[in-house]
Design goal:
By secondary structure, the protein is mainly α. It is built from five helices and four strands; from the N terminus they run H-H-H-H-E-E-E-E-H. It folds into two domains: 61 residues, 434 Repressor (Amino-terminal Domain); 111 residues, no CATH class. The strands form two sheets. A two-stranded antiparallel ribbon has the order 1-4. Strands 2-3 form a two-stranded antiparallel sheet. Helix 2 packs across helix 3 and helix 2 packs across helix 4. The structure holds zinc ion (2 copies).
Length: 188
């Protein structure tokens, strides 16, 4: 759970009172338990996920600037040579596959330097953290080794068989790589 300034909990309580909302009315609007709001307001932000905190800020119209930011953990020094990946599900550098009818994407890990910030394939800003737990990416894989969150969030187009889609997609990737191959060899 994000570390929020204690101040933010008080702001939520004050804004709710100002707007004449009860804790249970706010809880109902946000879709969480009244006890969670109560704990939150008394300085226990860990009782609510960031999703609900943002919902509540929206309901109470607490300005964006005052919305809390998730505290991003500092990168340990060992990861100064950070790895990154392209988070774009449509990028040809990301290989899709299906397990139990669920779509996963295996991103290519790229060693980041000061000059390498963008995906060379699609131009997307490279992601260096897990979108679920925000831990730095250290190992290969479609999902985070720490929390299991998929690194690239991909969805199938509606009404398409997952197997057929993946086969087609891999074909595109293969063709694209074979187009690059001759140039790649000439350079060597
Ligand atoms: Zn890309
Ligand atoms: Zn994670």
């Amino acid at each position: 759970m994000a570390q929020l300034p204690e101040d933010f909990c008080r702001k939520v309580a004050a804004a709710r009172r100002e707007q004449g909302l009860t804790q249970s009315a706010l809880a109902k609007a946000a879709g969480c338990a009244q006890s969670a709001i109560s704990m939150f307001e008394s300085g226990h932000p860990e009782k609510l996920s960031m999703e609900f905190v943002e919902k509540i800020a929206g309901i109470l119209k607490i300005p964006m600037a005052e919305k809390p930011r998730t505290q991003i953990p500092e990168l340990p020094p060992a990861f100064s040579l950070q790895k990154g990946y392209c988070p774009n599900p449509a990028c040809l550098s990301n290989i899709p596959y299906i397990i139990n009818d669920e779509l996963f994407v295996w991103p290519e890990l790229i060693l980041l330097t000061d000059n390498i910030k963008y995906c060379v394939t699609c131009g997307e800003v490279l992601e260096r953290r897990c979108p679920g737990c925000e831990r730095p990416v250290t190992a290969e894989g479609a999902c985070c080794a720490s929390c299991g969150h998929p690194r690239v969030l991909a969805t199938l187009p509606p009404g398409v068989s997952s197997e057929l889609w993946v086969i087609g997609r891999r074909d595109e990737i293969r063709q694209w790589r074979s187009l690059l191959q001759p140039r790649y060899c000439q350079q060597r």
